Amino acid sequence: MTNLSIKFCCVSLEQLAMEAPFSPELSKTKAAESEEKLKICWPILIYMVVCHLLAVCCVVKMFVGQRPMMITYLWTIVLWFISGLGITAGAHRLWSHRSYKAGKVMRGILMIFTSIANQGTVLKWVRDHRVHHLYSDTPADPHNSQRGFFFSHVGWLLTQTPEKVSECLKKVTTNDLMNDGFLTLQSVPYGVCIDFWGESLMNAFLLAGAFRYCFVLHATWAVNSVVHRWGVRPYDQSAFTTENPFVAFFALGEGWHNWHHAFEWDYATSEMGVWQQYNPTKAFIDFMCWLGLAWGRRRANPKGWDHMKERLSRKLGPSYKIVEVKRGVPLFRYRETKLVKES
């Protein structure tokens, strides 16, 4: 199953990456984990500590002193979706995987959204993510889940890049993005609260700025940590990646991760439609395609999964049967797959 998954999920990355063969020493076991001692990156650590202290101050301000206006809460939710879509529809599905095409207007919008999310440059985000797919959950994975939950969630950002990761980062190219002039835009969105409805500078900065920023950070990080640990594995049971509705909600549809790693070129990153599996990023891309601002969506469903099952059945032989069942409620359905040995 592992070889099968690699063939399916590396199709587009092989076109975007330089030669980066899967090395035998990068096995998915803790025994193969590098003994290299990680060094703390103090500037990033201090920055993250300050951001999270400000987010905690915001929580306190919700109950003590001059509380934020209700419209500021609503604007924070809007910014959650805006910055979240910058990562999911922009940095991830458009620029990392090239799973659909977008015109100048949409690329400009997504670049602004991504700048609001403030998760580093798109080029660095893309390079890290492409290496993650090529060496998922191995010592060469930038946020290898086998180093522990904390490391895959945020620790990888707080430490200097391990040597194996650095070597693999050099093998991956982002040359396909160098001609995109929208990758330098910046924005300061929390000023809207002050200019349009008279929110105090402190409340606007803490709620729509620091708190929302930390919230989106953890939603993104949960895709690297939570869904590599908790959830079902219907499409590739040999992988660490899972289907996690909880993460899908907060990360705007990015929690259907077992499907994504099996079919990483699928722009939807989920098997089912938006009314079955919560995926506002897919709905956003579909709407932009309807407006004519994006096109060329690449989709694996349903033939990709059918072909994978057929190949798995041939590999296992007639003594095994693949049993599938859909569970969950509308918007948060997921598939469970079991291999049953027939008597």
TrEMBL record:
GO terms for molecular function: iron ion binding; stearoyl-CoA 9-desaturase activity. It is found in: Membrane. Residues 77-263 form the Fatty acid desaturase domain. The histidine box domains are involved in binding the catalytic metal ions. It comes from Perkinsus marinus (strain ATCC 50983 / TXsc). It is a multi-pass membrane protein. One of its GO terms (biological process) is unsaturated fatty acid biosynthetic process. Its main location: membrane. It comes from the Eukaryota. Keywords: Fatty acid biosynthesis, Fatty acid metabolism, Iron, Lipid biosynthesis, Lipid metabolism, Membrane, Oxidoreductase, Transmembrane, Transmembrane helix. Belongs to the fatty acid desaturase type 1 family. The chain crosses the membrane at residues 44-64, 70-91. The keyword Iron applies. GO terms for cellular component: endoplasmic reticulum membrane. This is Acyl-CoA desaturase, putative. InterPro entries: Acyl-CoA_DS (IPR015876), FA_desaturase_dom (IPR005804). Its cofactor is Fe(2+).
